Amino acid sequence: MNDGCADANTVMENVIWFGNQGSRQSENNNERSKETPSNVDVKGNDFELIPFGAGRRICAGMNLGIRMIHLVVATLVHGFNWALPDSQSPEKLNMEETFGLTLQRAEPLMVRPRARLANHAYRNVS
User: Fold this and answer.
1) pTM strictly above 0.85
2) Cα(107)–Cα(97) distance, integer angstroms
3) Fewer beta carbons within 10 Å, N or C terminal of the chain?
4) pLDDT by residue (tens digit) across 85-102?
5) Cα 88 to the chain's mean position, in Å?
6) Interhelix angle for 62-79 vs 11-27, to 10°?
7) Which are the contacts of 108, defined by CB distance < 8 A and separation ≥ 6?
8) What value does the CA radius of gyration of the chain take, rounded to a whole number of Å?
9) Considering the domain boundaries, does residue 1 fall inside one?
10) Residue 107 covered by a domain
11) Across residues 21-41, what is the average pLDDT?
12) Domain range for residue 35?
């Protein structure tokens, strides 16, 4: 984080992106339902999405990884109010993607986390 803004390569980018997709998905519901099947499994049964591998070489830490992603995203969403920098509005965000080894946004998303809980909730527990 620099100057209170998070880089695009963090989990926070995905939280904001998925949050914005809810309103857009209702507008393009027919298109999205044709493009993406709703029964894709991340646990190695569908070869459209295999983040943990498949078959005999499946990742031994898959269950831990799935649980940790849920925990981290839930903690970030619960602990902070997320806002765009003052010069951006949600309607004018560039949602184009660039292709490569992984799918990335063409223009990095910068968000500003603001503390939502009392100050003592953010202290390190030692």
Assistant:
1) no
2) 8
3) C
4) 888 888 888 889 888 887
5) 19
6) 80
7) 7, 8, 13
8) 17
9) no
10) yes
11) 57
12) 11-122
